[in-house]
Specification:
heterodimer; A: mainly alpha; two-stranded antiparallel sheet; 12 helices; B: 343 residues; mainly alpha; two-stranded antiparallel ribbon
Chain lengths: 313, 343
Amino acid sequence: MTDVNIPLILYLKLILLTMVPFVLAGQGTMVGGRAGVFNVAQEGIMLCSASIGFLASYYTGNLGMGILAAMVVGGIFGLALAYFTTTLKMDQFVIGLALFFVGLGLSTLLPKLLIGVTMTPPLIPTLNNIPIPLLSEIPYIGEVFFNQNILVYVSVLLSIFLWWGLYKTSFGLSLRSTGESPQASDSLGINVTFMRYLASIVGGALIGLAGVYLPMVYTGTFTEGMVKGRGWLAIALTFFGGWKPLNILIGALFFSGVEILAYKVQITALGIPYQFLLMLPYLATIFVMIFTFRKPTVPQFLGQNYDREKRSL
Amino acid sequence: MTTITGSKPSIIKSFFPYLIAVLASLVAVGLFIGLMGFDILHAFQTILFTSFKSPNGFTQTLLKFVPLVLQAYAFTIPLAAGKFNIGGEGQLIVGAIGASAVGIIFFDLPMVLLLPLVLLGGIIAGAIWGLVPGWLLYKFNINEILTTVLLNFVAFALINYIATGPWRDPTAGHPTTTPIGAGGFLPMIIINPPLHTGLFIALLVSVGVYLFTTRSTRGYEMVATGANPRAAGVFGIKVKNMFVMSLVIAGAIAGLSGAIEVAGVQHRLIEGLQSNFLILGIIIGLIARGNPLAVPFVAFFIAVLEVGASAMQRTMKIPVEMVFIVEALVLLFVLLSAVVRRK
């Protein structure tokens, strides 16, 4: 009886584990977008944070330092995005692409310069599971939900916190209105520039945290291009979740579910060439977007820059 | 006559920000290279002059120029219509797959038939790969940035499948197919150092894109759509059709660049033949600000940097990514110069 159930439990546990980068990057995108700053540099930010976060923990021997470094890197990217778009009023997609390239370049340059090419990859310890006392003792459920690494708990709590912050506080209302109608917000005395900077920096830091999760949980080392499109998938996830924190959390379960499904089918060897299973997450995402983009709920001012001296359309 | 004399300073004027951008990027990276303890002057010499020191360096630069200029157009044509095509990489790969499939299936055909078919195979396959995001945008209003990127990842898996499938070359360690028929090889301009006629195709495409965007009705409608979709719609331009058309043309050009890599350079399908052409192509397109006349010149400049970068890695052990940072910085500075001029 239990023997049959163990794999299922394991897969459920894995789905929660692989959900984290999607949740964090998705929430990061959402936070920036809610203030009107549409970040499309996720892939580059995640790579750069993964690389620098890995290097930081490799040299300090401390995973906490790696996490901190990754979030700082992500925050700097968010700051740059906010500066170029909000202060200099440059096109958000173009700047996003430029930042993507910078992150991509730095992510491989820095390990090459600092560590060089080695025969065996340099390793850092991966994050331990932290069982929650008592709750982790519950049969099945305890193992799936309450015996995970710290960032799994953080990503769930963060999503709930963001929901509360956005919908139950006046600050959240100000942030949301900045992304919906900066003119109206400005006239009500909300500091639009400050809101956009703050949201972009916090969003960037979350995306950075998503990036460093990969070396810290999956591989223990940084490899070139290890983000494998998760940054782009996170943007799709944000649309899928309608730019709402709790929906993004649930949507992330779908994204990680597909990733684990592809992996599960691969090891059960049903005779499908494994390359087609590798396509699955991307094709599934495109398929899902067909339904998502029918009536997309996006912040009204997403991707545009606010200039109070310009006439609004 | 007055127009000619009047336009001269403006050409210099518009070139000036580029010069500043290049200098500023080189200074920034030079400081970094110096801090790492490398010889700055030698590094810069290698980056900038490797292309012009030997015939080999120069042909290498031209070989790099071909895919770069085509990838840049695959980005700038949809950009003119106001759409972002980040899928040039996937379109190149699928184009290369189409070209090799034709080249392997019709292995024995003579060159007059096989070469056009191989190129056409690449163009059609790439166009289909561009049509998919175009159709999804037309029918379901799905953001083209996401679909084009995601289709890149699908193409990565597809090329791996093809290159390890029935056509695979069992003697190669890397996923590779057997060669295409010799009739599908692009003729060479020079044998040693090798330079294939894909260069002429790339130049022809450059002229074609310029004429299309500036001299044709469809091209004008496309540019008008990008400039102001609402106004274009009011004047009876079918805006959505323009989006699809721009993505299909982009896919066709990127597919052609894949076919040229197969027919001119590799003579077979090899996983990874797309190199980093997509990202460099986007950088070129953005530095050129989407101007089809500027694209070839910027592409040549980036090709020079790329050839210099690999020479620098070989002789000085400075990672090639250092030059990638230079390119990204040039882009940022060029973008910034627009802000400065606006003020």
